[in-house]
Amino acid sequence: MLNENHAFILDFPDLTRDIVQLNHDDPTFKGDLQQYHELDYDIRQLEISGSPIDDDNMNDLKLQRVELKDMLYKQLTKHHEQASN
Predict the structure, then answer these.
(1) What span, in angstroms and rounded, lies between the C-alpha atoms of 42 and 76?
(2) Which of 15, 68, 69, 81 is the most exposed place for a label (fewest CB within 10 A)?
(3) Sorted alphabetically, which Pfam families does this protein's record hold (predicted)?
């Protein structure tokens, strides 16, 4: 869907507490999360403006976003499991 907000915290509301804690305590997670949000914002802005880039480049950006989200989710679930024990 065009211009859909993929904010990380919106996609994982049940892990909000973990996201906030990692964002505060883990500089690597914080940097990756910032990169994810900037990329998501850039993609949404391109979609709003009619995608002034070719499909291959847009797909590359979206693939980068998915890869970042997967990486962040792995960090998040690892943290959640450790905090639960």
Answers:
(1) 23
(2) 81
(3) DUF465
What backbone torsions phi and psi does residue 10 show, to the nearest 5 degrees? Answer: -75, -30
Segment (H or E) for 76: helix 55-84
Structural domains of the chain, count: 1
Is 28 within 8 Å of 74 (Cβ atoms)? no
Amino acid present at 66:
V
CA distance 66 to 83: 25
DSSP string over 3-70: T----HHHH-GGGHHHHHHHHHH-HHHHHHHHHHHHHHHHHHHHHHTT--S-HHHHHHHHHHHHHHHH
pTM above the 0.85 mark?
Answer: yes
